[in-house]
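Quick one before lunch.
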Amino acid sequence: MKKSITCLLLLSTFLFLGFESCAQKEQKQEPPKAKNVIYMIGDGMALPQVFATMLATGEDLAFCQFPYTGIVDTRSKSNTITDSAAGGTALACDQKTKNGMVGMDSDTVAMPTVLDVLAEHGKSTGIVVTCYAGHATPADFFAKVPKRSMYEDIAIQMAESDKLNVMISGGRKHFDQRKDSINLIERMKNELGWKVYDTLADIDTSCMKYAVLAHRSHMPKYPERGEFLPEGVKTALKTLEQDEDGFFLMVEGSQIDFACHAADSAWMVNETVDFSNAVQIALDYAKADGNTLVVVTADHETGGLTMIDKQGAYTNISFNYSTGSHTCLPVMVYAYGPGAEQFTGWMQNNELKAKILKACGIEETTVDTTSIKATDNIVPVIGNFDSKPD
Ligand SMILES: [Zn+2]
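Model of the zinc ion complex:
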């Protein structure tokens, strides 16, 4: 009996020790957290824009190198076809909202964006875009207004933001040619702690709060504007990486959308190449750094772009735009780095924020997962062309 008790004791000690070492092992195997996040949005860039650009250039793009890819449903709360304001708000926040709204839910309640939350967790933040600083997508990350056209209010919110460190963009007119005659650039410099530049040259990248407002309107088209977007990303990274707590950088290829609204294929290809070059810089940075999550997606598709042979002969490809506006075609998401494995399968656009935060070790449970019900008119038209069976 005594012997068997000793045996039991020994066995239980062994089991306990075994259990301990398993627990320790489990703890050790916990996936590494992302210290830095680079969130990149190709405005209007779904799979057709990416693949059309690959066909036109005969080359692979940076998107081909991502180990994790998924599909994002872009529908907004009010419309099956989203605009950029609601599309970007859903990518930045936990809730879908109505078309036209920036950083607010459908009841006009301001929502914390992924930039807001990561800034509150001590990370430095930046935005690099080729449109106005206050255009829908960048504004979706720092501003809260019920209408995207409130550019001058958005500029004030940017100037007064205590969460934004770096802004590289166009849109200077909303700061110094305002209806209220306020010179916001002077206020930013004198009262609000910003350095303000009008070009990427000669920036003091050791300064942790600056705006480069490089054009009065949107930046010129690529390649006329030069390497503004990739160089802007390099500049912002140089500044933001000084923060020991990490950083959040949002980058937008803003004019892929403009080109597709105009059904201008040469422009669309140029803009997608430029955005891909910026993505390559982010990806190379993340590969070298090891603690950086890169997430690339889009707010919606623009143009209803397809690559067709108009004769149906499968030989002569032409790019065909079925609309001068947006479509509800889902978009891709590409991810690399710690937490990237979450970005697979089918997801809603308002699920990305929580995934990014989770990658950084921040758990939030406020994602609205209510299923989307179309409130607008959907009339499926089937067989509206003479199809040849083949
Ligand atoms: Zn858009």
